[in-house]
Amino acid sequence: MARIRKNPSEENGKKIWRLGKYLRLSKEDLLAGDSRSIISQDMTLDNHIDNLIRNGEHIVIAGTYVDDGTSGMYDSRNDFQRAIKDIENGIINGLIVCDLSRMFRNDADQKQYLEYYFREKKTRIISCILPQLDTYYDPDRIYSMDVKFQGMTNANMPIENSLKIKDKLANRRKRGLFVGSFAPYGYKKDHDNKNKLLVDDEAAEVVKDIYNWFVYERMSIRRIVEKLNTLGIANPTQYKKEQGLNFKSATDNCGLWSESTVRNILTREYYIGNMDQHHSQTIFMPNRKKVVKLDYEEKDSSELVENTHEAIIELRTYELTQKLLTRDTRTAPTQKHTYLFSGYLVCGDCKKAMIAKKAKNINYYYCSTYLKRSKTACTKHTTREDVLTEVVLKTIQLQVALAVSLREKVDKISKSEKINKTSKRIESLLSSNKNALIKQENIQDNLYIDWKNGDITREQHNRMRMKTEDKIQQLKNEGEELQREKIQLESNVQQNNQYLETFCRHENITELDNKILIELVDKIHIYEKDKIEIKFNFADEYKLTLEFIKNNK
Length: 553
Description:
six-stranded mixed sheet, 18 helices, alpha/beta, 4 domains, 16 strands, Hect, E3 ligase catalytic domain fold, Rossmann fold
């Protein structure tokens, strides 16, 4: 039986070229304004192939390979890899592209493939546009300077495009426009304006539940995750898929919720109506892209735009959530809710957190140093929760009564014809700060003269100058803080006084709960012999309120 050649290399004495057409367009090309669509690339290739055929070449299109929306910098291009496999299997013996940037956006890859791999496999490479290239007619052209230079240019082009895209997106974010591919969970994109967010009623109810469970029912994040999964509520990734969106995530978890997902919902300002974007950035690596989360300090505050869309969560609830997230509210595996004082209690001696334990249906708190580290480093500081609750409640009732009394005095002062908003204390401190600053600046100026006159050495000058610079900066910071305190005293004591508003809201308090603790209490220090010290929120505003009243006796 005769052997049949699947892909003959010649016919009637002519070389048969089984060409593969390779077309690629990345998202960066589109966003950067590149007009070379897949269709226009295909038309260019067909025109070039027609010219080759008219010149007498025997060409067969043996494959078309398309990587649409894929960067040329990395080997993750599926159809490019398919083309390489077809070369290995002898299905194609040539590739034709519009230009080398379609095939390579990495000069190292261009060198590897053009100068080594394709030559070894005797694969013909055709580039239709500058730099024009056909390795069948001019195999040494791959070593020419214009081809090498174009490779370097192509390698730099994605980075340039990326910078252009980042600049465009940053400008849109600063204008309060949503630029993400998918709306955050709880919202959906406006069909008429893709940069605007609308509330997704179904998902928004889940978001509200998460906040309420965390703040007002004091459920830990882990317990919230368990409850969501027990109720069979689809996680954000699965929910988007159910809505028909082509959303993919590396951490899908088969539709189950995770702690990181819940924590993300509890921290994003989207839910109070602010456009909260740009939490990560893409860094180009030699062989891959790396997405890096931005730290709080690295974020551009100008990109956080307030009141851009309808809020799902009230501002007050969101603020209480952020306070709670800074506290240690972890629970034992058998505990569904956090203890009442979890995250509030501190050992008055070693300053470490107190740990809750239950014995005979009574909750106790102990010093964590004593229980976990060393019995000699600290003592138990044992406190019963029911006793502590009674003490804290009575103390809060006294503080609320005081706030009500102070509010009456502030209201009475506000009705008078002449109100003194200045503070002798602050004015005196500002004056002292100014004089001290002038003195230090004069010392610094005289140091240079002393050095030039030879009274001190260069080393002494540098050492003393550093000390005075530190002192000057310290005085400037103190002055700025005094100015802020002065402005607050002049503007906030009568109006928008958070201390008075918050404490007076609980004028008829008869029972202690999580919400009251979050709003009013900062820390509770527990000492031996039943000594308790409660530090309340709004301590600075409380002092300013007293000072305002004192100045207007």
